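SAMPLE LOG
Freezer: B-3
Tube label: C17
Construct: single chain, 219 aa
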Amino acid sequence: MSEIFLDTETTGLSFKDGHKIVEIACIETKDLVPTGKVFHKLINPKRTVPDDALKIHGYSHEFLSDKNTFDQVAEDLINFIKDKKIIIHNAPFDLGFLNGELSFINKELIKKELVIDSLDIARNKFPGMSNSLDALCKRFNIDLSRRTKHNALLDCELLREVYINLLDVKEPKFNLSANSSDQNIIKKENYNKKVIQISEKEIANHRSFLKKEFKKNFY
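STRUCTURE (predicted):
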């Protein structure tokens, strides 16, 4: 199964309080290796952006006013994440907004059983410590120099690196493009193999050598 690293930016803390999504980003990976497929949309929330939110992500009401609304991008989002494992940091926040928006336009909700919350993993691994995305990046020596403000697409990239470290797996070295296909991946059975046949005489000589070495060392 492919994975999706997902993040959103919003106008506030809760969809129930009338806040809306202003940015959605998804990065697809296979075995944690980016496939090159990305879903990234800036969203017109059709409401003002409070100053507190503007300071976090920098997306003003004026900047977002000519962007697509959520209902215009929802179908593409649904198709992009369909039947894939979704990895989110602090999943209840993003799911609350996404399922709120989807419910509002009568679309199928994202199933919680498909979602992995990397914050839960971090809290189990580092109990009692700060486990924000920033804190985890610093703990794992992941470069944060590009993160001057919150950005959903960049945060997906950072989350992938954090998730790899949380699972204690080595960073995959493959960089497969969106055009890569299964036949381009080298499989074990495709390697050239050269089988060297050993003669009976060579086997007898080797046995004789081992006997001599054994007697020399132990008698």
